[in-house]
Task: structure prediction
Amino acid sequence: MAIMAETATEIITIDAPHDRVWQIAIDLESYPVWAHDIKDVNIRETDELGRPLEVEFRASALGRSTHYTLKYDYTNAPAEMGWTMLSGDIQRSIDGVWRFDPDGDDRTTVRYDLQIDLAVPLPGFVKRRAEVRILNTVRELKVRAEA
Result:
């Protein structure tokens, strides 16, 4: 029996200009300051514009610490920033994308899509609790950008 990957989506309007929201989103080194579940970030490779390409994370997950490395894609920048997992300890795969849509001069609609395939099955209530914590990152981005 195959285990389906879990998906989550959050859409939020941020009262901040697109450029400000974009700059916060691509500043992965600062995530531990405002994204509470991200504990450590190690940028292993950057692109020609200095944006993070290969990034190792340590994050809180389900009462423990998890490690994973993501490869970022800026093909559609600054409208979106995508990623896919290169390696992880409790995940088989992680694929996601931030989408940033300017809404006038001072607002940005942000869509966060995430798909995770965990290496071990989890009860439904644990998955839902984890999803809430992951999607909280979107609200934390809003708080940071509007500050």
The chain is about 25% helix and 50% strand. The beta strands are 6-14, 38-46, 52-61, 64-73, 80-88, 91-102, 108-118. The radius of gyration is 15 Å. Residues 63 and 130 are 10 Å apart (CA to CA).
